[in-house]
């Protein structure tokens, strides 16, 4: 999902450039290179500024909520050609060439993307205080808040669609930017609203890289990866798993590189990842706990005998994607799981596998 987030951020930035300068044509390699830049920038923050991640997470939660309100109010207030309710809730338009049933399944990708990565706090539990209580709370609340805000956002945007064909084929490459422009009739206004989302996406990339690197570290620590002795190392001075972070960045960039060769191939990878995650993780792992919410909040979780790096400069919590359905990723879990980091542990203990495999 980190590669997808980089792709979204790059598209939004280039889309604004196209809207501001109509003579500019977005090329595929522009998107890939900008995605690389986003990934490398977030890697730098994760390695050299881990103490900033918690502040970013807390700040972006407030930014996310305020941006959500601003975007909804502005587009509904300025749009004077709103679609009727029948268009939003009843009409079914199929331009894909596929059958109705298959097209309906494809349409689920939009909402399914908003049901991804709520598990991010689970990957950071070894760096959270009282994780057995705070992590489940963050996951559950991000599901609820993501569902509510995502539904409101998508319905509002659907009401503000002008011409559906013109929106889908917008030269910006991002239909949402076109909807903002059609609603406000202002390039500045559309770019301002889009920039609110860009900030959220960039912050989300930091969180996705952090939780992805911790997963890689945990696998390597338990000898579950090739070259585990390298990826399980924690840098003594910075006290972060640098090699795991670099590996996570490399994987993201490799996934973005698919877009160099084929749009269809990249979209296929993203779609499979989205639906696969939503089906196997979101539905099966979160629906049941939500139905058993009392057990989540009252039953303590088992803790690993060996903690991942937990220094005072490490983030206390991380965000999980889900807000605004598919745009405002990784924002709710952060402040919801806002517990302070545990005291530092020795590096020698961190290098010891927490699970003895047989």
Explain briefly what this protein structure is:
The chain has 358 residues and is mainly α.
The poorly predicted ranges are 296-323, 325-358
Helix/strand structural class:
mainly alpha
Number of domains: 1
* Fraction in beta strands: under 5%
> Major sheet: size, sense and barrel closure?
none
Rounded mean pLDDT is 76
In DSSP terms (H or I, runs of 4 or more residues), the helix count works out at 16
Order of helices and strands: HHHHHHHHHHHHHHHH
Proportion of helical residues: 55-70%
How many strands?
0
The CA-CA distance between the termini, in Å, is: 32 Å
Characterize the overall form. Answer: globular
Q: From the alpha-carbon coordinates, what is the Rg to the nearest angstrom?
A: 21 Å
Give a structural overview.
The chain is mostly helical. The chain has one domain. The protein has 16 helices and no strands. The chain has helices at 2-20, 28-48, 53-78, 85-89, 100-113, 120-123, 131-159, 164-168, 175-184, 187-221, 228-231, 242-261, 263-291, 293-298, 333-336, 347-350. Helix 1 (2-20) crosses helix 2 (28-48), helix 10 packs across helix 12 and helix 12 crosses helix 13. The longest helix is centred in the middle third of the chain and has 35 residues, at 187-221. The two termini are 32 Å apart.
């Amino acid at each position: 999902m980190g590669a997808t987030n980089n792709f979204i951020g790059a598209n939004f930035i280039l889309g604004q450039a196209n809207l501001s300068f109509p003579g500019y044509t977005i090329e595929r390699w522009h998107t890939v290179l900008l995605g690389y830049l986003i990934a490398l920038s977030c890697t730098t923050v994760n390695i050299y500024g881990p103490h900033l991640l918690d502040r970013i997470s807390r700040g972006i939660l407030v930014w996310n909520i305020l941006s959500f309100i601003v975007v909804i109010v502005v587009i509904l207030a300025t749009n004077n050609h709103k679609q009727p309710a029948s268009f939003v809730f009843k009409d079914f338009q199929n331009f894909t060439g596929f059958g109705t049933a298959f097209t309906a399944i494809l349409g689920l990708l939009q909402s399914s993307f908003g049901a991804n990565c709520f598990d991010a706090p689970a990957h950071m539990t070894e760096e959270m205080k009282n994780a057995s209580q705070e992590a489940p709370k963050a996951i559950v609340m991000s599901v609820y808040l993501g569902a509510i805000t995502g539904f409101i956002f998508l319905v509002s945007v659907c009401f503000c669609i002008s011409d559906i064909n013109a929106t889908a084929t917008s030269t910006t490459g991002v239909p949402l930017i076109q909807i903002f422009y059609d609603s406000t009739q202002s390039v500045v206004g559309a770019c301002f609203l889009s920039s609110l989302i860009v900030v959220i996406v960039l912050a989300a990339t930091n969180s996705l890289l952090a939780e992805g690197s911790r997963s890689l570290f945990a696998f390597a620590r338990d000898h579950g990866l090739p070259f585990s002795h390298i990826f399980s190392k924690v840098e003594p001075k910075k006290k972060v798993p640098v090699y795991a972070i670099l590996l996570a960045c490399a994987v993201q960039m490799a996934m973005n590189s698919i877009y160099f060769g084929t749009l269809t191939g990249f979209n296929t990878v993203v779609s499979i990842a989205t639906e696969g995650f939503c089906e196997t993780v979101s539905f099966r792992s979160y629906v049941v706990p939500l139905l058993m919410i009392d057990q989540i909040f009252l039953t303590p979780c088992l803790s690993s005998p060996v903690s991942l790096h937990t220094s005072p400069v490490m983030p206390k919590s991380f965000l999980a994607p889900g807000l605004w359905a598919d745009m405002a990723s990784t924002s709710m879990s952060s402040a919801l799981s806002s517990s302070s980091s545990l005291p530092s542990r020795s590096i020698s203990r961190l290098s010891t596998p927490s699970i003895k495999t047989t």
